[in-house]
Amino acid sequence: MPPYNEEVIERWVSNLPNLIFLVAIYGDKTVGHAHIYKFPHLQRKGTSDLIIYLHQDFQNIGLGTAMLGELMDVAKKERLHRIGLHVIADNGRAVHVYEKAGFKVEGVMKDAYLGEDGKYHDELVMGLLLG
Ligand SMILES: CC(C)(COP(=O)(O)OP(=O)(O)OC[C@H]1O[C@@H](n2cnc3c(N)ncnc32)[C@H](O)[C@@H]1OP(=O)(O)O)[C@@H](O)C(=O)NCCC(=O)NCCS
Q1: By CB count within 10 A, which of 36, 46, 85, 110 is most buried?
Q2: What was the pLDDT predicted at 1?
């Protein structure tokens, strides 16, 4: 999930004004990354997409929940209207953590993701309206 090639890194860096970034640092290592991408287009004003991923040694210990809470606080302060995300339906932990933060399943994209197991997996569209 982290930016995996020059092109993606370039795209992220060139979009900095539209991103709310949050990183988790342990010692001298970055162990978690989350961001909200604020859509710059007029017709999508106030709407955004969220991404979060943690180093595998730092998963399932409450860090993701804490980081989402922090990001929600910033999003509310910035008066964002909507945060959306896509998640593979089998990713039970992520779905649980998103639902705990208030996200609702809005739709299912059937067989939208070709996994490393060579099989297609459903993808959920989730969203949170902040008002
Ligand atoms: C998804 C992710 C951000 C969640 O953060 P995290 O720090 O691991 O999660 P937390 O420890 O805060 O919370 C885990 C919760 O999920 C529950 N859980 C763990 N495994 C689960 C599973 N397979 N199914 C359902 N719930 C599960 C835990 O019991 C806990 O519930 P609780 O808070 O109600 O007690 C993190 O695991 C991650 O980065 N995973 C890899 C990348 C990824 O999948 N990113 C999301 C892509 S959209």
Answers
A1: 36
A2: 66
Does the CB atom of residue 92 touch ligand 1 within 6 A?
yes
The two structure tokens encoding residue 114: 């070709």
CA distance 3 to 10: 9
| Ligand 1 centroid – CA 99 distance (Å) | 11
Give, in degrees to the nearest 5, the angle at Cα 65 between 13 and 22: 20
Cβ(34) – ligand 1 distance below 6 Å: no
Q: Quick one: pLDDT band at residue 48, thresholds 50, 70, 90?
A: very high
| Residue 87 C-beta-side C-alpha neighbours within 13 Å | 24
Place of tokens 């945060």: 83
Phi first, then psi: give them for residue 10, nearest 5 degrees. Answer: -60, -45
Q: Can you state the angle between helices 92-100 and 63-77, rounded to 10 degrees?
A: 40
